[in-house]
């Protein structure tokens, strides 16, 4: 269909955008009323917009949909957020299958395999290009995951016990203090008579 009005087309509604109502972003034109986050529908401006392909998001929704996932990527200092954005229509990514350590003696330093370290999780050789060091052992990047939940780890986000590595959440849940007064939040000990 010919563009008789001569104006640019809105990146959202595909209708003509006239100069007085135009917002430009990444070479595309939008109506001010169409320049909204694709997920939560918040109004956007040049400081709050995040672009992914032809889609526009607020920085919060963009982070939930495309940002890093897992332990340590919460909303602020010391916060762990398990919100994956399902309430905003964001579909969680499929997780990779988790394979526990099959090394029969995982508590020892990984054995040498052909001049390179053996990965404690899969037993295969670990070469420099794929090597991650944690808990005193060399791991493949793909194998450097929590033994319980399978989350990818970093050397700063892991806890180890008996030669196995865990995310801090699973470590605390499985090996942390238990009993009266623990797990009630904010370090509070509650005693009622």
From TrEMBL:
SMART domains in alphabetical order: LIM (SM00132)
Alphabetical keyword list: Acetylation, LIM domain, Metal-binding, Nucleus, Phosphoprotein, Repeat, Zinc
Chief site of localization: nucleus
Lineage, opening ranks: Eukaryota, Metazoa, Chordata, Craniata, Vertebrata
Chain's gene name: CSRP1
Protein name: Cysteine and glycine-rich protein 1
GO function terms (MF aspect): actinin binding; metal ion binding; structural constituent of muscle
GO biological process, one term: muscle tissue development
Ranges where the LIM zinc-binding domain occurs: 8-68, 117-177
Superkingdom, natural source: Eukaryota
Organism (species): Pseudonaja textilis (Eastern brown snake)
Location in or out of the cell: Nucleus
GO cellular component, one term: Z disc
Alphabetical list of InterPro entries matching this protein: Znf_LIM
Function description: Could play a role in neuronal development.
Quaternary organization: Interacts with ASCC1; ASCC2 and TRIP4.
